[in-house]
Amino acid sequence: MIKNKKLATLCGIFVLIEAILAYFIFVSDADFTAVASFLSIVCAFLFSLLFLDVKSKSALIQLGLLFTMCADSFLVLAEPIRQSEGMVFFSLTQTCYFLYLYLSDSNEKRKKVHICVRACAILIAEAVMVSVIRDKTDFLSVISLFYIANLATSVVFSYTQGRKMRIFAIALTLFIMCDILIGLSSAIGVYFDVSESSLIYKIAHPGFNVAWVFYLPSQILIAIYTALINERFTKS
Q: Where in the chain are the domains?
């Protein structure tokens, strides 16, 4: 519960705007859905800027939201979709979130473990990917595995920092659930094939925009998290 009335009002207005955009995302035709989808990400970024503190490590979150907006300009608005450019910007997003998590951790031992685990996760993910898809390996597959390994590591270590990071941790969890769906959908038929009757295919092609059911709330929560950790901006 948000005790600061001014902050609660701002968050309420923000969530209402996002709810209206979400309605259009799920009921509109393809062209307007793309516009509404991108506007929802722009809205999350702009809301977070209300609480920007350039001298704080929390500014890394706003920078991450900016890179997310750039990524979606390639993945949502571009025609045709430019996946490689989008994944580069998403990788920058996760780099910002990694730095925020690392700098926010007061446990020096855990910070060292964090670096080791993240490095190992990236190396193992890339090695497994190359061994599985072999000659189909390309820049998109390499950058995508770099991104997902970073995001997965951030999910784990966001939960290790306790209640202060809980909203951010939940947001990253929703983020990775979205990316698992999109990753499977994009990889099937390009890097590997599965039967249309298989469970993996059905998860990847649910017949409904499930990915945004996870993705939009993740971005809303990240933006609200920036508000909560910089609550002093609304105290006047």
A: 5-234
